[in-house]
Specification:
Layout: E1 2-4, H1 7-19, E2 26-28, H2 34-48, E3 53-56, H3 72-100, E4 104-108, H4 121-141, E5 147-152, H5 160-165, H6 173-186, H7 194-205, E6 216-218, H8 223-228, H9 230-233, H10 239-245
Parallel strand pairs: 1-2, 3-4, 4-5, 5-6
Helix pairs in contact: 2-3, 3-4
InterPro entries: NAD(P)-bd_dom_sf, SDR_fam
Organism: Luteibacter rhizovicinus DSM 16549
Protein name: Short-chain dehydrogenase
C-alpha cells in the first residue's frame, strides 16, 4: 500500500511497481488528519489483509532560517507532518500488530536529528523527536514481539535534497547556504545511492536484525557488526557505545 497527499505522484510510483510485476494499492490521505489515517488503515486491512510492515516516510523540509525568524505556523506544520504523521499511523496500525504479535515499524529519519543542522531547525527538531519516539515505542512494543527502527537512508539525490538544491539564486542567505551544503554533501562520501539505501531497508525488514529494535540505524552501518556488539551495550542500552565502536 502507498499513501501520500498527491494522487498523481502516487500513480507514477504505482505504475513503476506494476511494470515490474508487483501489486499495489494507493490511497490519498493527509497524514496530519488522524481520523483519515485511521480510516485508510482500516480500509487497507479489509482489502489487503493484516499489515506486517509500516514505513513512515512522509516528510517536508520546513522553513529555513534562524529559529526566532521563521514563521511559527510553518514550524508547527513541519512537526505535525514529520512527527505527527508517523505517530498517527503507529496509533492506527500497531494495535492489530500487537494482537498478532507480528510486525515491524521503520520511521525514516535523518542525521539532522542527531547532529546540528542550523537554520533547518524545524526539520532537525522533528527528526530528533522521531528518533526518540522510535526508541520509546520499541521499548513499549518489546513484550508484543514488535520491532521498531529509526532509519537514516543517507543523503540521496532525490526528494528533499533536490528541493533544497533547487533554491534559486534569489534565495535568502540561509537558503543559499543550505543549497550549497546539500550540493557538497551529494558530492562527498556522505552521499548514498537509492539502491543501497533500499537494500539496507530490506535487511531491516527481514527479521534478521530485530535485536537492534529501538536503534538509530543508517544506510552506512554494518548491521552484522552492530548485532555482534549489542551485548557490550545491553546493560545500559547506550547506543552511543555501539556507534563509537563501529
Amino acid at each position: 500500500m502507498l499513501v501520500a497527499r498527491s494522487a498523481a505522484e502516487l500513480e507514477d510510483v504505482a505504475r513503476s511497481i506494476r511494470a515490474e510485476g508487483g501489486k499495489v494499492a494507493t490511497y490519498v490521505v493527509d497524514v496530519t488528519t488522524k481520523p483519515a489515517v485511521a480510516r485508510v488503515v482500516e480500509e487497507v486491512e479489509e482489502q489487503l489483509g493484516p499489515l506486517d510492515v509500516l514505513i513512515n516516510n512522509a516528510g517536508v523540509r520546513g522553513p529555513i532560517g534562524n529559529a526566532w525568524e521563521c514563521d511559527w505556523d510553518d514550524w508547527w506544520s513541519t512537526i505535525e507532518i514529520n512527527l505527527g504523521g508517523a505517530v498517527a499511523f503507529c496509533h492506527a496500525v500497531i494495535p492489530n500488530m500487537a494482537r498478532r504479535r507480528k510486525g515491524r515499524v521503520v520511521n525514516i529519519v535523518s542525521e539532522a536529528g542527531v547532529f546540528r543542522w542550523p537554520t533547518v531547525f524545524a526539520y532537525s527538531v522533528s527528526k530528533a523527536a522521531l528518533i526518540k519516539f522510535s526508541e520509546n515505542l520499541a521499548s513499549e512494543c518489546r513484550d508484543d514481539s514488535l520491532s521498531v527502527f529509526a532509519y537514516h537512508p543517507g543523503f540521496l539525490p532525490l526528494g528533499l535534497a533536490n528541493e533544497a538544491m533547487d533554491l534559486h539564486a534569489s534565495a535568502t542567505p540561509a537558503e543559499a547556504r543550505v543549497a550549497a551544503w546539500c550540493r557538497a554533501q551529494l558530492e562527498s562520501s556522505s552521499a548514498a545511492s537509492p539502491g543501497s539505501s533500499a537494500a539496507q531497508l530490506v535487511r531491516l525488514l527481514s527479521g534478521a536484525y530485530d535485536v537492534l529494535t529501538g536503534r538509530y540505524v543508517t544506510v552506512h552501518d554494518d548491521l552484522d557488526l552492530l548485532v555482534a556488539r549489542v551485548g557490550t551495550a545491553a546493560a545500559s542500552r547506550d547506543y552511543r557505545m555501539l556507534r563509537s565502536s563501529a
